[in-house]
Amino acid sequence: SAWKLLEAKDYLGARELYTQGLKLDPFDATLWNYRSNAHMKLQHPELAFTDAARGLQLLDDKLAKTNLSPED
To answer: Which domain of life is it from (predicted)?
Structure first.
């Protein structure tokens, strides 16, 4: 799993698996967060920021949808 690769410090391998996962489900905020972590470990802060921001955007969108009342 990608998580095991991260734990083993195989950051390139983990990033690749998270990228594959995001191709299957680009709306999974957790995958964006974990890939952001892999980017940071690989010394790519700009990519890490972009992925983290996307993950937060997805969480914000999800939260906004759950807070809508039937009248909205």
So the answer is: Eukaryota
